[in-house]
Amino acid sequence: MSWSVFETKRFSRQYKKLHDKTAKDVDDAVDCVQQNPELDDSKKGDLAKLRVFKFRSDGQLYLLGYTLEDSVRLIYLESVGTHENFYRDLKRNIH
């Protein structure tokens, strides 16, 4: 049984602002996460449920933040962006 993917509003807004090539790289990253969502480690502290998949696009490091709902095999795409202020902005929006 495969994992389903759900985009949060925050992720959708961030995704729309991306350039076409970066959006394609995000799509590829989402495919990787969908194939094996438990590959990446969970964060600690305030973001304990968050998992982060790191990938490069145009030579820059991007992070794809997501959470899992194991009981229904659902992946929630929480956020995407460059490493700069990624975790700070997520903390601010979660609380």
Please characterize this protein's 3D structure.
By secondary structure, this protein is an alpha+beta fold. The chain is 35% helix and 32% strand. It has three helices and four strands. A four-stranded mixed β-sheet has the order 1-4-3-2. Strand 3 (60-69) and strand 4 (74-82) form a beta hairpin. The longest helix is centred in the N-terminal third of the chain and has 16 residues, at 20-35. The termini are far apart.
Write the layout of secondary structure elements.
Blueprint: E1 4-7, H1 9-16, H2 20-35, E2 51-57, E3 60-69, E4 74-82, H3 86-94
Parallel strand pairs: 1-4
Antiparallel strand pairs: 2-3, 3-4
Key terms:
4 strands; 3 helices; single chain
The average pLDDT score comes to 91
Give a short account of the largest sheet: 4 strands, mixed
Spatial strand order of the main sheet = 1-4-3-2
Secondary structural class: alpha+beta
**Nearest-angstrom radius of gyration?**
13 Å
Count the DSSP helices. Answer: 3
- Poorly predicted runs are none
Strand and helix order: EHHEEEH
Q: Report the β-strand fraction as a percent range.
A: 25-35%
Terminal CA distance: 33 Å
Number of strands: 4
The geometry reads as globular
Helical fraction equals 25-40%
Describe the structure concisely.
This protein is an alpha+beta fold. Helix content is 35%, strand content 32%.
